[in-house]
Specification:
Blueprint (H helix, E strand, L loop, with lengths): L1 H15 L7 E2 H4 L15 E2 L2 H13 L2 H8 L36 E4 L5 E4 L11 H6 L6 E4 L11 E4 L2 E2 L11 E3 L1 E3 L3 E3 L5 H9 L6 H11 L8 E2 L5 H19 L17 E4 L8 E4 L4 E4 L2 E4 L3 H4 L2 E2 L2 E2 H14 L21 H19 L1 H13 L5 H6 L31
Helix pairs in contact: 7-8, 8-12, 10-11
Length: 427
């Protein structure tokens, strides 16, 4: 842990000293980025898809002032706002919700910040800023790198990778950027600085220079800084190969078996099991370090390695935050700023079996990620001694500065999209 903080502190000092730092900004390597989603109302997402359907039905059945109250209007959205359909979601309405709500759309799985998967009602009329450009490029081959936001001296990874549509939520309230690996569907037009792959192939070998190899390297080597993630690029092929190998393992764990990969599993005897059933309305979570167990009210899960319990992102303990969100949903707790009879508390049905399965999987993922910590620290130690591809070399190759055109979304519209009130969108 101390080595990770030392490396991060070194990157921060270089970034703030005025000298040309040896690493490159992630914003220069993956130049197209999108801001986090802004739902505008918390009831449109949550850990239980059944609750989202119930909320929709109550909102659709309400009328007039009651529907307005439940909706929780903002400057961007009210029940009377017509909007374009989300790309790939033509079954949702585009007319005014108050007049024609339509059928409830199927909730979609999203990445709610690092290492948390929740559900979202994919109706553009309900979301202040859904970032349609992300929906256009999201398909079965897309991957998203999500920055966690900079927190001084905080341990934990600087970014995560997901195959799900990410909302960009940050545990510490300092959201980073969302960077798709590809600018177009079907894994075409990599979101990498023009010429970067040519430089990598020339210096480090053609076998390790595909877009997903670069993403793997970034995940393994990225360091947080006040200006955003920074990434050292080695000039040593052996260091690069070691980082890519580590990064691929990290990506596999982040994806949890998606994209045809193996689901994460701990060795026999170290796999977590439910030793005592979790209650329907849990009130708290405690870690028993001596027994390596999570104690959830009267429920109990073990073994849980200390590294899984202590795993943090932006200074926030992942397991504790994950549990708190679901415990609040299970008891129908009123979120801060919400009304006691608002939609946020509609649909509570207690702790679900699905959440228990997800918790066991999350413990496994965090334990395995923590187990890769020594390899990641060893890589960073090698990088401190290894020669790096300099910014001057990247400038000479035309990689830097990055053209403004690649910082904008690509034109990916291969079909007409429905605009407000059923008209076709003009893009």
């Amino acid at each position: 842990m101390a080595a990770r903080r030392t490396a991060a502190a070194g990157a921060t000092a270089a970034a703030g000293s005025g000298e040309d730092p040896p690493s490159v900004e992630l914003d220069e390597l993956m130049p197209w980025s999108v801001r986090p989603l802004r739902t505008g109302r918390s009831w449109v997402s949550g850990p239980d898809p059944a609750a989202l359907r119930t909320r929709w039905e109550r909102l659709a059945a309400a009328e007039g002032a009651e529907q307005e109250r439940l909706f929780r209007p903002s400057r961007s959205r009210t029940p009377h706002t017509p909007v374009a359909a989300l790309p790939g979601r033509s079954t949702t309405g585009t007319g005014r919700f108050a007049r024609e709500p339509g059928a409830c759309p199927d909730p979609v799985r999203i990445a709610h910040g690092p290492f948390d998967e929740q559900w979202l009602l994919p109706d553009h009329r309900l979301i202040d800023a859904a970032r349609p450009e992300l929906w256009r490029v999201g398909d079965e081959r897309q991957l998203f790198a999500v920055e966690h936001g900079y927190v001084p001296q905080a341990a934990g990874p600087a970014l995560s990778v997901t195959h799900l549509l990410p909302d960009g939520h940050s545990p510490a309230g300092r959201p980073g950027r969302i960077r798709p690996l590809y600018r177009r569907p079907d894994a075409t037009d990599p979101n990498l600085a023009p010429g970067l792959l040519d430089v990598v192939r020339t210096r480090l070998g053609p076998d390790e220079a595909g877009p997903e190899s670069v993403l793997a390297w970034i995940l393994a080597a990225a360091l947080p800084s006040p200006s955003g993630c920074r990434v050292p690029l080695p000039a040593d092929a052996e260091v690069w190969a070691a980082g890519v190998s580590l990064g691929r393992e990290l990506v596999r764990l982040h994806l949890r078996g998606a994209r045809g990969g193996e689901r994460p599993r701990l060795p026999g005897g170290r796999r977590p099991y439910v030793r005592a059933a979790l209650p329907a309305r849990p009130t708290g979570i405690v870690y028993d370090a001596e027994a390596e167990a999570l104690v959830i009210s009267d429920g109990r899960i073990s073994p849980v390695p200390p590294g899984a319990w202590e795993f943090t992102v932006s200074g926030v303990r992942v397991l504790e935050l994950w549990f708190d969100r679901r415990a609040a949903a299970a008891v129908g707790a009123v979120p801060e700023g919400a009304e006691a009879d608002g939609l946020e508390v509609v649909g509570s049905r207690g702790w679900t079996p699905e959440w228990t399965s997800e918790l066991l999987e999350l413990i496994t993922v965090l334990a395995l990620l923590d187990g890769l910590g020594p390899r990641q620290e060893a890589l960073r130690a090698r990088l401190e001694r290894a020669p790096l591809i300099s910014r001057d070399e990247l400038r000479a190759a035309g990689v830097l500065p990055v053209p403004a055109s690649v910082r904008r979304p690509a034109s990916v519209l291969g079909h007409q999209e429905e605009g407000p009130e059923g008209q076709f969108a003009l893009l």
